[in-house]
Write a structure and sequence with these properties.
Distance between the termini: 27 Å
Strand content: under 5%
GO molecular function: transmembrane transporter activity
Number of strands: 0
Shape: globular
Pfam families: MFS_1 (PF07690)
Structural class: mainly alpha
Number of helices: 17
Largest sheet: none
Radius of gyration: 19 Å
InterPro entries: MFS (IPR011701), MFS_dom (IPR020846), MFS_trans_sf (IPR036259)
Keywords: Membrane, Transmembrane, Transmembrane helix
């Protein structure tokens, strides 16, 4: 059932589940220094962890089509927080790199099951204000990536690495809350028709092709800052807390960015907002690398605000153009997003091993400028 009105309560509930779910996926980056030390990993091996977590995203279009045709969006959203929390709460208890890869792979499956249908629910609850709805939804995720890293470090400090698994309890509560709250609502918005991936792609290819180019160019900025920022700061300062604080600051202003960008795009236009953030982001990263003190912190803030703010705008574009199979369309978008980011993380790790972390950030910023030509090809 579509509505013209913005349903604040329902959008907020899904955004809350996004917060809980993504808090667990945010544990990997701040705990990487401990994992690297414990298992004696290289940066390439560390980057591969994120890549492996993204592999299940290749199935996103199939998952989306299945959700559209079978009406299983509720169950995916309900179960995913718990299914993600279990492996992510055990990453410090592994004794081998291979077992760690297995854990993050299973977490990736659950991540795919959550992120494909949840934006579709938000779009339907947002009426004509899809930009605002996606901003609220993405704010849940970015808030998780702001608080999650510091929570993970605090939990390790209080519980110790051996008992870190206890943090999974929050996810169980969330799944129960979603089960009793979303069960009846899903019936009202179920899409009761069959579709195909080809028809879905044909419907949105005029926006998907340029958005894919933007995602590819942005992925190196997103990957380098999101995965290796903690390691970069920890190596410069010798403090894991400073590394976690830097990531938290980056994500905190990412929250402001995602909340602002989608809302502004409702008023100013999707392309105009994307142009400004995609132009400023790589410049901010370059200044972040080559400055010190307060100016470095300011550049980190601007980077977080701009790099992370593009997603709700692009999600709104996809949902506005996907009329018949919105979950499958979102699945295609998320597959490309996760795939290019996972590849970018791996290659960023290789660049970091060969040329150093500073040069890795520089290369990522230069690639980021390549998003502008694709944006100019995006149809109004």
């Amino acid at each position: 059932m579509k509505t013209k009105n913005f349903q604040t309560g329902r959008v907020t509930l899904v955004a809350f589940s996004h917060f809980i779910h993504d808090a667990y996926t945010s544990f990997l980056a701040p705990l990487l220094p401990l994992i690297i030390e414990k298992l004696s990993l290289t940066l390439s091996q560390a980057g591969l962890l994120s890549t492996v977590m993204q592999i299940p995203a290749l199935l996103n279009p199939v998952i989306g089509l299945f959700a559209d045709n079978k009406g299983l969006a509720r169950w995916m959203v309900v179960l995913s927080p718990t299914l993600t929390a279990i492996p992510m709460s055990l990453i410090l208890n592994t004794s081998s790199y291979s077992l760690l890869l297995v854990l993050v792979f299973f977490a990736g499956i659950s991540v795919a099951f959550y992120h494909v249908p949840s934006p579709v629910l938000v779009a339907k609850y947002s009426g004509k204000s899809k930009g605002l709805g996606m901003s609220v939804f993405m704010t849940g995720g970015e808030t998780a990536r702001t608080i999650g890293p510091m929570f993970a470090i605090l939990a390790v400090s209080l519980l110790g690495a051996d008992h870190f698994y206890a943090v999974m309890g929050f996810a169980f509560f969330t799944s129960v809350l979603l089960y009793f709250t979303l069960e009846k609502e899903e019936e009202k918005i179920r899409i009761k028709k069959s579709g195909s991936l080809k028809s879905t792609y044909d419907e949105i290819k005029h926006v998907m092709i340029p958005l894919s180019g933007i995602l590819t160019a942005r992925s190196f900025m997103h990957a380098s800052m999101g995965v290796f920022l903690t390691v970069f700061v920890e190596r410069q300062t010798g403090s894991l807390w400073y590394g976690g604080a830097a990531l938290a600051l980056y994500e905190a202003f990412g929250v402001a960015g995602v909340l602002s960008a989608g809302t502004l795009s409702d008023w100013l236009g999707r392309q105009r907002v994307l142009f400004w953030v995609l132009t400023i982001a790589p410049v901010a990263i370059l200044f972040f690398v080559f400055t010190t003190g307060i100016l470095k912190i300011v550049m980190l803030v601007i980077t977080g605000f701009t790099v992370l703010s593009t997603t709700p705008v692009m999600l709104a574009i996809i949902q506005e153009n996907a009329k018949f199979n919105p979950s499958a369309a979102n699945g295609l978008f998320m597959m490309i997003s996760f795939a290019v980011r996972s590849i970018a993380v791996f290659f960023a790790g290789i660049i970091g091993d060969i040329a150093g972390l500073e040069n890795m950030f520089v290369v990522s910023a230069l690639i980021g400028f390549c998003a502008i030509p694709f944006l100019l090809k995006l149809e109004h």
